[in-house]
Amino acid sequence: MFYYVLKYVVLGPLLRLVFRPRIEGLEHIPDDGAAIVAGNHLSFSDHFLMPAILKRRITFLAKAEYFTGPGIKGKLTAAFFHSIGQIPVDRSGKEAGQAAIREGLGVLSKGELLGIYPEGTRSHDGRLYKGKVGVAVMAIKAGVPVIPCAMVGTFEIQPPGQKVPRIKRVTIRFGEPLDFSRYAGLEDQKAAIRAVTDEIMYAVLGLSGQEYVDEYAVKAKAAQTEESRKFPRRAR
């Protein structure tokens, strides 16, 4: 209930009014039935802008840190994410990926929309990074289409470290659904799930126009942090 109050009465109208998002390809989102919406992730604002413009409810797999923060702020953040139906996923440890896949498949089994960021984390520099294969495993196992999505301009309104978003128009693009039925039964084959993931990321790249980096975002971010620690002046 609270989800729909936020979407249609409070947050949705406010976001549309402030950011005036250009929406392209909305017709590619099915009116019913399970599907995965896979997009780039440039900003914390992405969590709110895309759901606000969709006619259907969409559930995202959110990092567990949003639900475990300390103090009043942490409790409020956790309550907010719980109230809008987002699912916490622990991204640490060997079982993290399998847990995320189980949760995602649970959403899809109900005929709902599942939102996922294949990069696994926000881009720290606005580029598009290599996708993790969990999205491919879910798409093949559930036998559902994947709709690529590109957020354009959200990095500029709220880059890392920017707590309050700048007021600037953004664009949200959806591409044609990708059908991976030809890979049925191959969700345990590394070559197959890598091929599916790369096809999804290529579709997102075509929509976003970002520079692509064939490396995982987490690894690239860690390398940048290490360089900043060793050579603070060079990192600037």
UniProtKB/TrEMBL annotation:
Any Gene Ontology biological process: phosphatidic acid biosynthetic process
Pfam families in the cross-refs: Acyltransferase
SMART domains, per this entry? PlsC
- GO terms of molecular function: 1-acylglycerol-3-phosphate O-acyltransferase activity
Q: Which InterPro entries match?
A: Plipid/glycerol_acylTrfase
The organism sits in which domain of life? Bacteria
**Which residue range or ranges hold the Phospholipid/glycerol acyltransferase domain?**
35-154
Keywords attached to this Swiss-Prot or TrEMBL record, sorted alphabetically, are: Acyltransferase, Transferase
Which Gene Ontology terms of cellular component type are present? plasma membrane
Record-given protein name: Phospholipid/glycerol acyltransferase
